[in-house]
Design goal:
By secondary structure, the chain is of the alpha+beta class. It is built from 30 helices and 23 strands. A hairpin with a 6-residue loop joins strand 18 and strand 19.
Length: 837
């Protein structure tokens, strides 16, 4: 963030310091409590425009006089930015050793390293699991330094552009037009990226450069004397128009707004308007902004910006949702530290006459080295720092971490952002059976987190089920799009449509979702959609169970016990309770709609809540993962608590009648062709396929030939495939068997990935009809797959990749290496009549 000092070449403008005050106060108020100023985050955008105006002026005037040099330019940048910046980074890094748990401490240390090289925006774009406005982002102590990264990256290239184009070009009509075009291109790029790449749009220079360029435009218009040409009335109108634009942004925008992009234009254009209007003579607004208390805050704005975020982030990390007292104390501490920084660090260094080399050494090289050494120690010890050598402490940490895994990370929980047909064939997601279940668990993450509990009940009452969950997407047949997040709209609609069709193929369906979330959008419509979806299933004779939602624990922090090892004063118990009446208000409506449509309703809160109060604990063991989801371990505990519950037995025991369907292919009725023979004799080295290349894929292709006429598929014939392979259990790379059917231009691809460690298989590409696998004690993996009938006759080929991915579940990688021995590989044409049996 540029809170640049005033260059001697440019006249001091107190109103700009006042504008800085408006910007930094907006940011601080928003970060302290978003309800105080919903659009306060646009303060950063105001700063970008001010920076573009001031720094462009410094560069342009230096180029005009022929005195510009990068050494002098960066000498001033070092004096202005680095001393306080490194003080804040160092203090934040030190505080983190006493406050943050190990993974968070390690991540914070890495962000500190990125920040000293002005690459925090890059780090958070590609290293942060969520977006800027998410709750977890509010706990990243150095997140705010992304803006300094954007600015300094801009000032690497901007001086060179002005030097090449010529400073005089900037204020000519062609220069002004060029700046406007470039700025609008940046805003347009940001707008285009918001849907698929919101993190890049928010943090990265190409999407933010337009805001700095609007500052450069303000400088160009100022130099052309636009303010004088407007006259007094014109300047007043322009300045107050800018105020209205900024005010509208502060009130109308919020954390849910699509931002930046075109939504950033009012605030940034308004800032530029205020700067231009006050260029020649003082306006009424200019006099207000130049009021001494406001100017004083503007002078402190750089320090205020740097200090406020770590203070708030650490406060939230320790205490969760901040009370008003916490917020006011944090703001007071911010002003105290900022005043000290301004008078004791910023001001003395700013007046230094030291050379570039000395400033670089003292204020960049030396502190960078010290911070890098600390970061190295933190990262190398996995975030433990000196506690790495405390065996008792590490044992306690490991026990907490093991109990806090989300259910979605379990291999048997099929929760995806977008579901496809192959997810419904994943053998790992069929619980308590090797065959294909007749019971389906369907919903969003609130269905996914019940899967371990249902697994316990399945074992107890003798039923099996398949689970499929689409994240943040309701299990509704018709209007899922109304309740989906904008960023995941297409994924949700596609998944819900597919699951609605597939659910009708099961004899029993268990439905669960984040009912309160969807009720916030439209409660009557949500209940209508639930009822319509259930009625569509029960009307066809399907047994339907609707699960209630567990209570939300508002200020829940799953790591509180972990944190208390470092911060013994934390009161974790105060965060882990909630009145049941809150969740009952929506669950009772869900139960009524479900029963009206012919479903059975079941509520896990009967286990978690006692005497009207719900707890995050069950028998003194933590069961929650976050404020609304139980953990994988907690879900198992829920299931165990219900093993002998009469109500659970009444609801879930009937599922035992829906026995799984055999997923074994009837090979005795087919005429398999031995493809492995093409590779060589049994036991020969020809059947050992190797990929020793870390630079490209290695595969063995078996293609249909005229002398293998039996391998041509007729119209409406399917294909069965079975194989026995073995690889080293130490191999991390997955094996890929790819089947391609059809001719060039109309070829379908079916991919089977095999994990040599577990024998698990997963599918990608076109949908299979069946897919299953097993692993023997000697490591030999057997699998079989069924490809549905093709619509046109054609040939097919099989390709075997000994190593396709670097790890199980990962994407394809040319760097993967491995070896596989093919013991057998049979294929058979499957007539349509047999396929439908």
């Amino acid at each position: 963030m540029s809170f640049s000092g005033h260059a001697s070449e440019m006249a001091y403008r107190a109103d700009i310091d006042g504008l800085r005050a408006v910007a930094v106060l907006s940011v601080i108020l928003f970060h302290a409590n978003a309800s105080w100023m919903p659009g306060g985050f646009i303060g950063v955008d105001i700063f970008f425009v001010i920076s573009g105006f001031l720094i462009t002026g410094v560069i342009a005037k230096a180029h005009q006089t022929g005195s510009f040099s990068y050494a002098e330019f960066y000498r001033r940048r070092i004096k202005r930015l680095f001393p306080v910046l490194f003080t804040v980074i160092g203090a934040t890094l030190l505080a983190g050793q006493f406050i943050l748990n190990e993974p968070d401490n390690q991540r914070m240390a890495l962000s500190a390293l990125a920040s000293i090289f002005f690459a925090a925006n890059v780090f958070f774009t590609f290293g942060l699991d969520t977006d800027y406005f998410a709750d977890s982002a509010a706990l990243e102590p150095l997140l705010h330094l992304w803006s300094l990264g954007v600015e300094e990256q801009f000032y690497i290239v901007w001086p060179a552009i002005l030097g090449i184009a010529g400073a005089a070009w900037l204020t000519r009509r062609v220069g002004i037009v060029a700046i406007i075009i470039a700025a609008m291109a940046s805003f347009t790029l940001a707008q285009a990226l918001l849907g698929e790449h919101p993190m890049f749009a928010y943090y990265m220079l190409p999407a933010r450069a337009g805001e700095l360029l609007l500052g450069a435009l303000a400088y160009a218009l100022t130099e052309r004397g636009v303010a004088d040409k407007l006259g007094r009335a014109g300047r007043e109108i322009l300045s107050w128009t800018g105020v209205l634009a900024i005010g509208w942004s502060l009130i109308a925008l919020n954390a849910e707004s699509l931002f930046p992009g075109f939504a950033a234009l009012p605030a940034t254009a308004g800032t530029a308007a205020i700067i231009v209007a006050g260029a020649s003579r003082t306006t009424t607004l200019g006099r207000l902004l130049a009021w001494r208390p406001v100017v004083w805050i503007g002078l402190l704005s750089y320090s205020l910006y740097l200090w406020h975020w770590p203070i708030l982030a650490y406060s939230r990390y320790m205490f969760g949702d901040l009370l008003l007292a916490h917020q006011l104390i944090a703001i007071g501490l911010t002003f105290g530290l900022s005043a000290a920084s301004y008078y004791l660090i910023e001001t003395p260094v700013r007046h230094s006459r030291a050379s570039f080399s000395r400033l670089f050494t003292v204020h960049f090289a030396a502190p960078s080295l010290m911070i890098a050494l600390v970061v190295g120690g933190v990262v190398m010890t996995g975030g433990y720092a000196w506690r790495y050598y405390d065996a008792g402490y590490r044992a306690s940490i490991e026990s907490y971490a093991a109990a806090a895994e989300p259910a979605s990370r379990m291999a048997y929980v099929c929760q995806r952002a977008r579901l496809n047909a192959n997810d419904l064939l994943n053998p790992a997601c069929a619980v308590n059976t090797q065959d294909e279940p007749n019971v389906l668990v369907w919903g969003d993450s609130h269905a996914g987190h019940y899967v371990p509990a249902l697994g316990v009940l399945a074992e107890r009452y003798g039923f099996a089920f398949r689970n499929a969950a689409h994240s943040a997407c309701p299990p509704f047949a018709n209007e899922a799009r109304v309740f989906a997040r904008r960023a995941r709209l297409d994924e949700c609609v596609s998944s819900a449509h597919m699951m609605t069709e597939i659910a009708r193929q099961y004899r029993a369906v268990i439905i669960s979702a984040s009912w309160d979330t969807y009720a916030l959008r439209d409660t009557p419509l949500m209940l209508d959609e639930l009822e319509a979806t259930v009625r569509g299933l029960t009307g066809a004779g399907t047994y339907v169970i609707v699960l209630g939602q567990v209570s939300r624990i508002g200020n829940f922090d799953r790591n509180c016990l972990w944190k208390r090892l470092r911060l013994p004063f934390l009161d974790c118990g105060a965060r882990w309770g909630a009145p049941r009446e809150v969740i009952d208000a929506i669950n009772e409506q869900v139960a009524l709609s479900a029963r009206r449509a012919g479903a059975t309703y079941f509520d896990f809160n009967d286990v978690l809540c006692r005497d009207g109060q719900c707890s995050a604990f069950l028998d003194r063991q933590l069961v929650y993962y976050d404020d609304g989801h139980v953990s994988a371990h907690g879900s198992v505990l829920l299931g165990e608590a219900l093993r002998d519950d009469p109500l659970a037995e009444a609801v879930f025991a009937p599922l035992a009648q829906f026995t799984p369907r055999s997923s074994t292919i009837a090979w005795s009725e087919l005429q398999p062709f031995d493809l492995a023979a093409v590779l060589g004799a049994v036991g020969s080295q020809a059947r050992v396929l190797r990929d020793d290349s870390s630079g490209d894929y290695v595969s063995r292709r078996i293609t249909t030939m005229p002398n293998r006429a039996g391998l041509f598929l007729a119209e409406h014939e399917g294909l069965a495939l079975r194989s026995e392979i073995v690889s080293s259990r130490e191999q991390r790379a997955e094996i890929l068997i790819r089947v391609e059917i059809g001719e060039a231009g109309d070829r379908k691809q079916y991919n089977i990935y095999v994990d040599p460690k577990t024998g698990a298989v997963r599918a990608r590409g076109e949908a299979f009809s069946a897919l299953r696998s097993s692993m023997a004690d000697d490591g030999r993996i057997s699998f079989e797959a069924l490809i549905p009938p093709v619509h046109t006759a054609g040939s097919f080929q099989v390709r075997i990749f000994p190593a396709a991915t670097r790890r199980a579940g990962g994407g394809n990688s040319r760097e993967a290496t491995g070896v596989v021995t093919v013991h057998s590989l049979d294929v058979a044409r499957v007539p349509a009549a047999l396929h439908t049996q």
